[in-house]
Every structure is written in C-alpha cells, then in structure tokens.
Amino acid sequence: GKDMIDLKKYRIIDLSEEIIPGILKVNGEYVHGNQIRRFEIRQFIYAPDKALMHWVETETHIGTHVELPAHLIDGAKSSSEMPLETFMGEAIILKFDFLKPREGKGQPIKPLHLEKVRKNDIVLLWSPYSGDERPYISPESAEWLASKPVKMVGVQNIGVEAPEGSMATHNALLRNEIPLIEGLVNLDKVQKERVFYIGLPLRVAGLDSSWIRAIALEPL
Known about the structure:
4-stranded mixed beta sheet; mainly beta; 2 helices
C-alpha cells in the first residue's frame, strides 16, 4: 500500500560494530575474538537435534549498546520497560571534525554547538579523533540536552564525560529517562544531517544496558 515505508527511498546504514566473540568449540579449540572486554561463546551440541547452539557470556556494555536509567538507579527503567518509540525516530547527526584537539587534549562540546537540535531529537555525535583527543560532552551541554528534552543521545569517538571523570552526563541524561547509545560506528558515512534512526534493546527485564543493532535510514 502507499502508506507503507518504501525502503527503496532510503539508504540503510549499519551503525553497529561487529563483535567477533572468543569461541570455545565443541572439540575444545579456542579462537580469540576482537573485544578487549569479555564476549565469549561456547559451542555445544543440542542433543535431540544434534544441532549446534551456543552459551553466551558477556557484559551489558559491549559493542554498540544503549544504556538505560537502571544503569544508575537500582529499580529504575531497564531494557524491557522504556516505550519502544524511545528507540526510534528522527535523528540529527552532528559532526565535530572542526573541534580539533589542543595540545593532545579533546575540547568540550558546548551548547552553542548544539543549536540545530530540536526537542525530541535523537542526537548522534561524531568525531574523527580517538583516545584523549576526542571532543567530549561538557556538563553544560548534558544539562542543555536534558532540558530540551531530547529523546536519546548517541556517540562515536566522542567522550561522554569530561576528562575529570565525573558522571555528570550520565546523570543528566539517564536520570531524566534519556537513554545513551555508546559504540556507534559509520556515522561518518551518513551524508544527510537528518535521518530516521532505529536501535532496539533486547526485551530483558532488569538489564541496565542492552546490545542493539542500530541503523540509520537516510532519505535518498
């Protein structure tokens, strides 16, 4: 029907990191993966069918993931409790290649850098810098985003917190039920400033954070 979403009108961009797990095979062979933090799968043979299955052992903050209020507050909304609309919608992609490091140190993203952000936007922030040279979300910007309010904030090569190491940004966002997406990739491949973003968490009660398959639908 004419009201259906026509995927031919969009470029689909995968914003999720591929996790290559460490794998322990049935024959006892172990192959390392690509993660510094632990993500391991252990192969087993499911008896009735003689089919291969896997046990998974990992943590909730690995690869591309979305953090929820339960990360900071015990009993707050977790992976299965936020409305689904939270995790999809119009996103603005802001690129900070112009915010160059000074003397090897990343510079703060200030509210004046965010003036194109609208209420209920999903705000995706990108830079080409890594390590200590990444720009970071200043505490003022975190408060500004929370007061708009925006729907979600996501980062690639952007420090969530100021180098001093407070939890100001996590607090401003998560305590206001604004989830935080970490570990995004390919934001540099998005050409348009606005896209439709989808990144759904697993429906697991109590999870403070969930791995997601995040995508952008970029209008052609």
